[in-house]
Amino acid sequence: MNVLWLEQEEVKSVVKMQATIEVVEKAFKEHGLGKVQMPPKSYLYYPSYNGDLRTMPAYLEEEDITGVKIVNVHPENPEKGFPTVMALIVLISPKTGAPVAVLDGTYLTDIRTGAAGGLAAKYLARKDSKIIGIVGAGRQARTQLAALCYFFEPELVRITSRRKQSVAQFKEDMKTSIACEIRWEEEVEKVCDCDILVTTTPVRKPLIKAEWIREGTHINAIGADAVGKEELDPELLLTSKIIVDDMVQALHSGEVNVPLAKDYISENDIYCQLGEIIAGLKPGRTRNEEITIFDSTGLAIQDVASAQLAYKKALEKGLGKTVKMF
User: Fold this and answer.
1) Architecture of the domain whose range is 2-108+301-324
2) Catalytic residue among 41, 69, 122, 313
3) Is 69 a catalytic residue?
């Protein structure tokens, strides 16, 4: 039995944002309609190294595609010359259970998370949104902005990071694809003066204060993806419409996990899952004045859908290395 092996550069060459948005949107819709199997992420924690390892299986029943992602999160890795997040995805035949492809999941994790943020803004942000604020200048900031620009035409991007040089590199990397001013802001508060706010940090103490967020703002809360992480002032959650990617995962490891554990909010304060809005089961934004929050933990259905896209495109182009397994 042959298995296709795809390296990161090969995956990058065939998976672009528009197509990723399309397959991720379809996956979220199936999730909203209850047509996927996706147990919550399982975690292994490495306290001595400030890191963790996660396994993420999923089966999209209508698409008949299945697989599993193995992914780490080690915030101190950049200081050691490694990415914070690294991932591997195995696509599997639902018919036989045999592996059909093994591919780099690091790039796919970045782009599929960006796609989800873009989709959340499509359904939740004001249509006239012109100013984007970004906290954090890593890989996820890049794909989030790229996806947002697929749906909106920003006039200004405000961005901040712990290191000014990170923002300088961000501006250099994005200047050819983003046709607007990208402005470094020293203060997080200034970044919050925006229509769409994206937070992409691994912090465990909130850095966004409720009083900084103006009416009508949409927030993509991306950074909180494990127990104990939170980026937003819990007070903000009480005055906002909260949409999660998956209820079970969010309760355990999303932006809402700490406020829930401290009984600051309850499950009743969560409006719905993004897939329910995409499937037309729930309305998204209903008033220009409301503050909306998308709590993204990252779903295995996103990984399987984007990996299947990479696999199909690679086969069409004759990419990858075939390895005999059995």
Assistant:
1) 2-Layer Sandwich (3.30)
2) 69
3) yes
